[in-house]
Every structure is written in structure tokens, then in C-alpha cells.
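Pasting as-is:
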Amino acid sequence: MQTRLNPYTTAPDVMKPMIDLEASLKTASLEHSLFELVKIRASQINGCAYCLHMHTKDAREAGETEARIHLLNAWRESRLYTARERAALEWTEALTLVADTHAPDSAYEAVKAQFSPKEIVELTLLIGAINTWNRIAIGFRSVHPEDAKHAAAAA
């Protein structure tokens, strides 16, 4: 896979609001572990290797366990996730797959039971942001560092 273009150098003025949104989300009231789980789960659904590489690394550095990272794709079948995390993951899936799910009331009720209204807005913006980052990375074929190392070694 070859990178198509670098959006940061091609259109820095257009990328700046995305970078600013990301910075703003990092100051939100959501706990960091939840922040990374949401980013990983959306990236799994979207198949974004670049973002999966980044956010699993960030999660590990923040103290997330390997078991929780590896089982995230099957969170419904694992007891490793709290009720709050489960509600956030259900909302993540509902919004990431919105064309299919149409954000069902059951997912909203689950998130409403675990999060304040302000946190629901923060969570929703976080989900929207990671989905946009996934589309940028996939669309422009961003190469994650492990792929770059492998390609260099194979050359």
C-alpha cells in the first residue's frame, strides 16, 4: 500500500479544525481508558490499521491490559468491561454503523443511564472524530509505523 497524499501538508488550514477538535476532546471529562477503547472499537469496525496501531499503543501506554484490547471486538461476551464502557461501546457501534442502525433508542437509553448529558455530547463528538480520522487515514492510505518498518526491511 502506498500513501496517496499527506493531508497535513496538502491542506493544513482544512486539517486544523480536526486537530483542534482532537485537542478539545482530550480535555473532556471522559476517562482516558474509555477514550481509547472507543477509538479502538470504531477503528476495528472501519478496518483502519493506522488508527488501530496508534490507539492500541496509546491504550497500552496509559495502562490498558492486553486482554481488554484483544477482547474488545467481542466486548459483549466478556466480563472485562464495566456497564459504563459497555454503554459507550454500544453507542460507538451504533454511530459508526449509523446507516444500518439509525442510532436506536436502546443504545441511547443505555448511554443515557451511564453518562451525563454533557458526557453524551463529548462521547458523540469523540465517536464522530475517530470515524473522520479513520476515513482520512484509510482514504489517503496512511501507513502505520509497523508497515513502514516491514516495507523497509523487505526492500
